[in-house]
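Quick bug: LysR family transcriptional regulator output formatted oddly.
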Amino acid sequence: MNLRLLKAFVTLAEKGNYADAAQTLAVSQPALTKQINLLESTINVALFSRGRQGTSLTAGGKRLLPEAEKVLKQAGLFLQRAEGVAKGEEGMMAVGFGLSSFTFAPQCIAHFQRHYPGVNVSLEDLPSSQQEEMLQSGVLQVGFVRVPPKAPLEYRALFEDRLVLAVPEESALNVEQWLAKLPLLRLYTERGRGLNLQTDLFLQANRLHPSSSQQVEDIQTIVALVVAGIGVALLPQSVAHIAPTGFTMVPISSETSAWQVGIAWDGQAEDRIRDNFIATIFLQ
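Here's what came back:
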């Protein structure tokens, strides 16, 4: 159905005469007459009758007018939604984040949604390597990862994170002494590949040898075990945001203890919502 014909029908019904309706629609009266005639022949229903008092709706026209108004309203809403989607103001976006961006990523999303409330954002805690795979497959639109990521992903650096030694209590012991005293708690490789590689790099560069090590499923369990005095852990300093009472962090000064955290995305895929999100991060 041609929406222009429905618009002519509704406008003529509102105005009650061809002259005013044609002026409102910015068309000539003959053109409006042709539109009404075409609509009537298409639906096989006479919509108007002409008399000395002007143009009036027939019984069929009265029955169909509410339906025509409903269709035009729905079409208007559709166009409005389509415009929002085209501008990246409505839709969905999947975001990945890791331990280093544990608080930063949610803050970025909260800021974004204040400007784009029509976008539904999902946030999932994932290792950087898994995020990179999901970005390239299109499952994620944005990832907060260690940078630089693997090509062909694009990225921008955001901040630096670095290792600290998490210990159960304040003490005069240094890093080497703590590693000799308690086991080193580490994430399973599939869960903390990047952190484990950074840990190994730091240990090798500084010729440190833990007395023993223990693998743990997640970061919350590591924190709990450290607080309980069962072990120590080399963690990102950003873990301070979730550190409970009884959790102490020993600073580490080493070139091999730091890395860059940034935002990554697949630049080969067009995505207006993602582009708006990235822009809001750097305009904060």
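Actually, after a second look the formatting is fine. The mean pLDDT is 92. Closing.
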